């Protein structure tokens, strides 16, 4: 598993920005998407769920901050939809 599998720039096994696939769980252009963490939007429970998944997969520092921001945005969006 690598960071690219959770990034919106990753398509068809390659980086959409033309970057090399990193060997670690970090990338300067990492752009997380909720659909990469939850296949079905109904599976999203809370912000903490996504953060726990992220730390389990080995995300740290900058990437984890980006994931937290994405999860917070999704949590606000799901509150307004309900």
Task: List the main descriptive attributes of the protein structure presented here.
mainly alpha; 5% strand; two-stranded antiparallel sheet; 82 residues
**Mean pLDDT rating:** 89
Shape: globular
Q: How helix-rich are the residues, as a percent range?
A: 40-55%
The low-pLDDT segments are none
> DSSP strand (E) fraction?
under 5%
Distance linking N and C termini: 33 Å
Number of strands: 2
Structural class label: mainly alpha
Radius of gyration: 13 Å
- The helix/strand series, from N terminus to C terminus, equals EEHHH
* Number of helical regions: 3
Brief summary of the model shown:
The protein has 82 residues and is mainly alpha-helical.
What report would you give on this structure?
This protein has 82 residues and is mostly helical. The protein is built from 3 helices and 2 strands; from the N terminus they run ββααα. Strands 1-2 form a two-stranded antiparallel ribbon. Helix 2 (47-57) runs antiparallel to helix 3 (61-81). The model has no long low-confidence stretch (mean pLDDT 89).
Topology:
Blueprint: E1 10-11, E2 14-15, H1 34-37, H2 47-57, H3 61-81
């Amino acid at each position: 598993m690598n960071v690219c599998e959770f990034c919106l720039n990753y398509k068809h096994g390659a980086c959409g920005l033309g970057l090399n696939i990193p060997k670690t769980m970090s990338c300067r252009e990492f752009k997380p998407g909720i659909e990469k963490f939850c296949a079905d939007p109904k599976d999203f429970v809370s912000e903490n769920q996504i953060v726990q998944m992220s730390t389990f997969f080995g995300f740290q520092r900058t990437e984890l901050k980006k994931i937290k921001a994405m999860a917070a945005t999704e949590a606000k969006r799901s509150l307004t939809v309900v």
